[in-house]
Specification:
alpha+beta; 2 domains; four-stranded antiparallel β-sheet; 11 helices
């Protein structure tokens, strides 16, 4: 669980979350596009704002639309993919990489030919061994089938929680296919609360009758996404620590008790000329063999039971060899110490004193 949580925290998002904000963008019922254009220009003019863009939902790639290839349609019909309608500065705000071709530009606005950008996942799955740039795809959009030319491939941007795989995604220029709602994605400097206030003032300067916007930093969004895995990790770590501690105490206590019960035997062996080193090796060997048997049985149970927690793990096998080996080694070292300390103590004892006491 610890390894899994560390992997979740270090996952590749495909964008730079530092300094980014997600902010709701209420729009009037009439003249939505004109309002959006004017408000976006005023938001970009806010001193604390480095760049700003509009996207279709409050998270990356949250819409789903069917699509197909125009040249060679898929044999089973349209394929459902993630979809985003974004403004031209979207890739600049996210600082996401365009790995081939280009991103959107203002000249791509309607009535220019319809264009699209796809992510690497879609390029790998639906254009294997081909160059998608220049290829044409067909989007099923509001009961229409609209062809688009692919102009770029962007690096995969994670759309959901860190543990959820990236989906194939198609992005279109907002001015070509506007969506019913919009969300601001902003890259800014300074205090997020102050930035939100300034952006809100910019929106109200265009239309003061709109409701106030809500905002979250990307750090807050990502923190919320790992809240449940963090809780699971804390609980598992606490229970596991207690279990390992009990195992350590139990093994040490059992082996120390078994070794102490052989004090008279060791005294007699010393009296008959046995070396203290050989006595310690004898006692430790018996204890370690017993512990190895117990560890082997425990590992079998572990391999069987940990499969039940597969759904809680991310990029870690339930039977991760490193974890199993390290815990088994810990218990074996404890067993060795449980045998060695009482054996060494008994071997140093005067045999005559032990026998006389007995």
């Amino acid at each position: 669980m610890i390894q899994s949580f560390i992997h979740l925290l270090n996952v590749e998002y495909g964008y730079q979350p530092d300094g980014m904000m997600i902010m709701s963008f209420p729009q009037p019922a009439a003249n939505r596009e004109a309002f959006s254009e004017q408000a976006l220009e005023r938001i970009k003019a806010v001193p604390a704002v480095e760049s700003a863009a509009l996207m279709s939902s409050n998270r990356f790639g949250q819409l789903n639309f069917p699509f197909n290839r125009e040249d060679r349609p898929f044999p089973n019909g349209d394929v459902l993919v993630r979809y985003s309608s974004v403004s031209a500065d979207y890739f600049h705000v996210l600082k996401s990489r365009i790995v081939a071709g280009r991103g959107f530009e203002e000249r791509d606005a309607s009535p220019a030919p319809a264009v699209a950008v796809i992510n690497e996942k879609l390029a790998r799955e639906d254009f294997p061994g081909e160059d998608p740039i220049g290829q044409r795809i067909v989007l099923a959009y509001n009961n229409q089938r609209i062809p688009h030319a692919i102009i770029g491939i962007m690096a995969d941007v994670r759309q959901d929680e860190p543990g959820v795989p990236v989906w194939p995604e198609i992005l279109v220029h907002r001015k070509q296919l506007p969506w019913l709602s919009g969300t601001l994605v902003i890259r800014a400097n300074g205090d997020p609360a102050k930035v939100q206030k300034l952006v809100q003032e910019a929106i109200w300067s265009v239309d003061k009758n709109l409701p106030p916007s809500t905002a979250q930093t990307m750090d807050q969004v990502l923190e919320a996404q790992v809240a449940t895995p963090r809780l699971y990790t804390i609980l598992f770590v606490l229970f596991s620590a207690v279990a390992v501690l009990l195992a350590v105490l139990g093994i040490y206590g059992l082996q120390a008790y078994i070794a102490s019960r052989r004090t008279n035997e060791m005294a007699i062996r010393v009296a008959l000329g046995a070396r203290k080193r050989n006595i310690a090796r004898l006692v430790i060997g018996d204890g370690v063999r017993l512990s190895l048997l117990g560890i082997a049985v425990g590992l079998v149970g572990t391999i069987i039971l940990t499969r039940l927690m597969r759904s809680l793990l991310f990029e870690v096998s339930p039977t991760d060899p490193g974890t199993l080996f390290s815990v088994a080694l810990l218990l074996l070292c404890v067993a060795w110490a449980g045998c060695y300390i009482p054996a060494r103590r008994a071997a140093r004892t005067d045999p005559m004193a032990v026998l006389r006491h007995e």
